C-alpha cells in the first residue's frame, strides 16, 4: 500500500506541469511583414475594409503558432487570428461591458463574484467563430448571423486568497463559463490589444 502511494505521488508530480500548462496562457507576439502572410488571410482582411493600417504579428503560445492581424474598423479595435496556412481561427474586437447582453452580463458577474474575492475588468472582447463569409457579414452588419458562434473573452485582475493575478476567462453568449486561464506575463513579449 505504501509503494502504491509513493508511485501515485511521483506520477502526480511528473504530470503536474502538464496539468498546470493546460490552465495557463502565455503568448509572445512579434511584428512580421505582410509579404509573408498567406493570400487567403490577406484576402479576408481586405474584404473587411479596415479603417487603419493592418499590423501583422506572429504569435507563439502554449498551444502553437498563429498569425494575427490587428487594425481598427468602425471605431473598434480588431484582432483576427489565422493558422499558419491562412485559415481563420477567430475574430475578436474590443467592447465595453455595456455591450454584453444584459442577461449574460448578470450571469458573468455572478460567476466572477463566486470565483474571486475581488475582480476588475482589464479588457473585454467579443469573439466570432464560423465560416469566413458569415463572419464578414456579421462584422459588416455589426450583429452576428445565426451561424456565427459568439463568445466573450474577458481579461481581468482577480484576487484569490490574497493573491492577485491576471486571468483570461471565456464565456459563451449566454454568460456560461467556457474556459479560465491564468495569464503568464512577460511584458517585453506580450502586446495587449
TrEMBL record:
Protein's name in the database: PepSY domain-containing protein
Organism: Pedobacter alpinus
Source domain of life: Bacteria
Lineage: Bacteria, Pseudomonadati, Bacteroidota, Sphingobacteriia, Sphingobacteriales
